[in-house]
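Entry 14. Structure prediction run on the chain below.
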Amino acid sequence: MLISFEKVAAEIEIESEVLTVWIERSWVMPVKQDGVYHFDDADLARARLIAELHRDLEVNDEAMPVVLRLLDQVYSLRKALSDLNEAIKALPEESRTQLRAELAKVTGKPIGDDTA
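Output returned:
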């Protein structure tokens, strides 16, 4: 579902000029059709996050790109780990046992069946 520019600004309680600046800085990247911005749920969540970072944590404009890049990296890593976990679950038990043994060698710690 696409959300209008005005609704996003109202929902996160910011001035439309502020949202425009965020778009210009590529902090939020909604789709633009016929000169009108359309936000999806991910865009809205990111705009909400930026608003919270500004208001609650007082992240300034200079630090915001760094914070957003770091958060994007964390989300990407979490997705990659989730994908890896699903692939490991699909392996035969013998392969999973061998993987646990190899991980234990590398980390120096025993790896159990319940490790996530």
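The CA atoms of residues 11 and 18 lie 13 Å apart.
Filed with the rest of this week's runs.
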